[in-house]
C-alpha cells in the first residue's frame, strides 16, 4: 500500500469516526438510551419528546452557525472542539439534574451539526483527487455510530444498566475514539473542490420556484423519518414487549444506513439525482409504514432496514442536486436545505406528543404518527416527480479535468 493511499484511508477512518461521534452519539445516542430512562422513571414520553426536540433545534442552530463561522478559523480546531464538547455534554447527561437536560441536549445538537459540517468539509478537501468512493466513505460514520451505540445499548440493557450508566459509558467511548483520531486533524484545511453531479447551470435564469419546491421536499424527508429514528426502540417495546430481540432493531437501522451510504456512492452519476431521491423516499415511506401494518419482529426488522438504507443516502443525493441547481453559492443553499431538513425533524416529537395527548393508548398513537410520517414521505416524492416534469435536467458524464 502506497503512502498516499494509507494517508487517504487514515483520513477516511478519522472522518467516519468523527461523524460517528457527532451523529451517533451527539444526536442519536438518546434513542437507544430512552428505554432505560423510561424504565428508571427519570422521564416519560412527553419529557422525552421535549429532549429530542431540543436536540433537533440545536442541530438547526448549529447548521446555521456553521455558515457564519469565519473562513479564517482553523477547521481542525473546530472539529476538535466539537468532539470535546460532545464528550463533555454526553457525560453531563449522567448527572442527576433533570432541569439541565434540555439545555444539554440543545448544545449537543449544536455541536453535532458543527462537527458534521466541518468534518465533512475538511475530509473532502483533504481527499480531493481521490476516487469518489473513498471520499464518500466518510459518510458511513453516522450509520456506524448508530449501529455501535445501539449494540452497546443492547449489552447495557442485558446487564441492567441505568440511563445514568449508559450516558457515562457513551461519554467514555466517545472520549476514547476522539483520542485515537485526535492527531489526524492537525492541518488547518484547504478549499474543497466541488464534487461533480451532472451538468450544472452556468447560464440562463433559474426558475424561482425550483429551489423552494426542492427545499420543501427535503424538509418533508426530515419529518418523515424522524418519528422512527426517535422512537424505534420504544415502538418495538410496545409491539413485542417480551421479545429477546427488542434491542436489535436500532443497531440494524445503523448498519442499514452504512450499507445505504456505500450503495449511494456507487450509483451512476450521469442520472438525474431526483430519481434516486424519489426511490429513497418511497423505500423509507414503506419502511415507516411497515412497523404499523406488520407488528412483529419481522415487520420491525424490515422497517429498520427500509428506513435505515436511505437515511444518509437522501442527504447525499440532495446535496448533489443542490450543486446542480445552484452552480454558484451552492454552499449557502446546502446550508439552507440542512436548516429546512432540521425544521422537519423538529416537528416530529411535538406531533407525536400532540397525538399522545389525544389517543387512548400508545399503540394507536404511534400508529397514527407513523402513518402521517409515511404519507409525508410520499408527498415529498410526488413533489420531486413534479419537479422532474416542470424542470427537466440535462445530465452527462463528468468531463475530463483540464
Automatic annotation (TrEMBL):
Any single Pfam family the record assigns to this protein: MFS_4
Name the UniProt record assigns to this protein: Major facilitator superfamily (MFS) profile domain-containing protein
MF (Gene Ontology): transmembrane transporter activity
Claim: Lipid metabolism is one of the keywords in the record: no
PROSITE patterns named among the record's database cross-references: MFS (PS50850)
The keyword Transmembrane belongs to this UniProt entry's keyword annotation: yes
GO CC list: plasma membrane
InterPro entries: MFS_4, MFS_dom, MFS_trans_sf
Keywords, comma-separated and alphabetical: Membrane, Plasmid, Transmembrane, Transmembrane helix
Occurrences of domain Major facilitator superfamily (MFS) profile (ranges): 210-402
Transmembrane segment boundaries: 9-30, 50-69, 81-98, 104-125, 137-159, 165-185, 211-232, 244-263, 275-294, 300-319, 331-356, 368-393
